[in-house]
């Protein structure tokens, strides 16, 4: 009988050990699921925060880009106007220089000749 009691005790201990291992596995799986869910929620919160920062940055700087384009356009127009005014003032002098260069050429010996 003692052998039967020993075997029964071993079977009972093995069954309890199997239950403990089973509970430990279930606990580990539950913790892993919870960790995944927590990580996913943290990632989502971080994405929302960074999206919000991006939208704020874009809204703050959207007007400045348009203003810079307008400033650059007006600056270019001012420079073009100035160049046209200088060209119209110097037009007669340039024409005289061209006529003089054609009518009375100056001959110079080239330095390599």
From TrEMBL:
Gene3D superfamilies linked to this entry: F1F0 ATP synthase subunit B, membrane domain, Single helix bin
Pfam families cross-referenced by the UniProt entry: V-ATPase_G
UniProt-recorded Gene Ontology molecular function terms: ATP hydrolysis activity; proton-transporting ATPase activity, rotational mechanism
Region (Disordered) location: 51-76
Keywords associated with the record: Hydrogen ion transport, Ion transport, Transport
Record's GO cellular component terms: vacuolar proton-transporting V-type ATPase, V1 domain
Signal peptide range: none
InterPro entries recorded: V-ATPase_G (IPR005124)
Cytoplasm in keyword set: no
Record-stated family: Belongs to the V-ATPase G subunit family.
Role played: Subunit of the V1 complex of vacuolar(H+)-ATPase (V-ATPase), a multisubunit enzyme composed of a peripheral complex (V1) that hydrolyzes ATP and a membrane integral complex (V0) that translocates protons. V-ATPase is responsible for acidifying and maintaining the pH of intracellular compartments and in some cell types, is targeted to the plasma membrane, where it is responsible for acidifying the extracellular environment.
Subunit structure: V-ATPase is a heteromultimeric enzyme made up of two complexes: the ATP-hydrolytic V1 complex and the proton translocation V0 complex.
The name this protein goes by in its record: V-type proton ATPase subunit G
Organism in which the protein naturally occurs: Zygosaccharomyces mellis
């Amino acid at each position: 009988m003692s052998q039967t009691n020993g075997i029964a005790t071993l079977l009972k201990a093995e069954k309890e050990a199997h239950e403990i291992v089973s509970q430990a596995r279930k606990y580990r799986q539950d913790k892993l699921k919870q960790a995944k869910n927590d990580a996913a929620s943290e990632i989502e919160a971080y994405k929302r925060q960074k999206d919000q920062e991006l939208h704020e940055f874009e809204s703050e700087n959207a007007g400045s880009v348009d203003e810079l384009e307008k400033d650059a356009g007006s600056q270019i127009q001012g420079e073009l106007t100035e160049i046209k005014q200088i060209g119209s003032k110097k037009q007669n002098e340039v024409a005289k220089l061209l006529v003089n260069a054609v009518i009375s050429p100056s001959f110079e010996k080239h330095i390599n000749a």
